[in-house]
C-alpha cells in the first residue's frame, strides 16, 4: 500500500515542501529511515537525524527551520506528533478495511448479520448469532450460539466467543482471547472429590472495550461477568466468574482476578497483580505490578507489595528491608555486649 506526499498532506491538512509525488509504503523511526519510508520529527533532540535520514517523507512542525541540506520531503503541520498519530490511526483503518465473506465459513441458518461485515475463512457463526454493522470476524474465529455482537466490533483470528456472550459497539477482541468459558466452580464431597458446579451465566462486554491476546474472561455461575465501557485489558489476563470491572479501568498483562470481585471505575492495575475473590476495589485505585490484593480497597488508594501495602508505607518499609541484615548484625552485637556486661 503506497501513499504520495500530496495524499498524506491532504489527510493531515499539511503543506508539502519538496517532491509532492514521492511515495512511501512503510513507517520508520527518523534515525532508521530508509527509501520509501515515512517518519516524523517532534522531539528537538532528534533534529540532527533529519539531515542524515534516508526516509522519503518526514512530518515536521510548521515552524521547523531547515539549517542544512536535506534529502527528505517535508510535510509541515501544526503538531508533528499528533499528526503522525492521526496518520497511524488512518493507516490502521485502511489496512483493516476488509469486507465480504471468504470461503469456506460456517454460518448457521438462524444467524443474522447485515451486508456490511467481514467473515474470514474458517470462521464459525453458531445458532442465533447476531452481528452488528461493520463487524469483522477474522479467520478461525469461533462465535458460539446466541452471541450478540455490536457495531464496528473486530474479533481477530483464533478468538473464541462462547455461547450467550453479549459484546457492545466498537470493541476489539484480539487473537487467542477466550470469552465465556466456564468459571472455576467446584464443590468437594465427603470423599474429597470435586463435583463441577454448572456455570449457567454469561459474559457482558460493554462499548469501547479492548481485550488483549490470550486473555480469558469466564462466564458467571449465575448472572453475568461484566466488563464495563472503556475498559482496556492487556494480553494474558485471567478474569474469573462473576467479576465486574468498572468503566475506563486499565489492566496490564498476567493479572489474575478471582471470582466475584468488583473493581471500580478508572483504576490502573499493573502486570502480574493477583486479586483474591469476593473483594471490593474502589474507584481510581492504582495497584503496582506484582502486588497481591487480599483485602477491600478504598477509592484512590495506591498499593504495592504482596500482601499489598499503602504505596508510601511500602517504599518507607523497603528501606528497612534492604538494611535488615546490617540491623540484625548490630542487634546481635549489642546483645552480646549487653550479656557480657
Automatic annotation (TrEMBL):
Homotrimer. GO terms for cellular component: membrane. It is an enzyme of class 2 (transferase). This is UDP-3-O-acylglucosamine N-acyltransferase. Keywords: Acyltransferase, Lipid A biosynthesis, Lipid biosynthesis, Lipid metabolism, Repeat, Transferase. The active site is at 241 (proton acceptor). Gene3D superfamilies: Hexapeptide repeat proteins (2.160.10.10), MurE/MurF, N-terminal domain (3.40.1390.10). Pathway: Bacterial outer membrane biogenesis; LPS lipid A biosynthesis. NCBIfam families: lipid_A_lpxD, PRK00892.1. Catalyzes the N-acylation of UDP-3-O-acylglucosamine using 3-hydroxyacyl-ACP as the acyl donor. Is involved in the biosynthesis of lipid A, a phosphorylated glycolipid that anchors the lipopolysaccharide to the outer membrane of the cell. It comes from Rasiella rasia. Belongs to the transferase hexapeptide repeat family. LpxD subfamily. It holds the Pfam family LpxD. The keyword Acyltransferase applies. Its EC number is 2.3.1.191. GO terms for biological process: lipid A biosynthetic process. Residues 21-89 form the UDP-3-O-[3-hydroxymyristoyl] glucosamine N-acyltransferase non-repeat region domain. It catalyses: a UDP-3-O-[(3R)-3-hydroxyacyl]-alpha-D-glucosamine + a (3R)-hydroxyacyl-[ACP] = a UDP-2-N,3-O-bis[(3R)-3-hydroxyacyl]-alpha-D-glucosamine + holo-[ACP] + H(+). One of its GO terms (molecular function) is UDP-3-O-[(3R)-3-hydroxyacyl]-glucosamine N-acyltransferase activity.
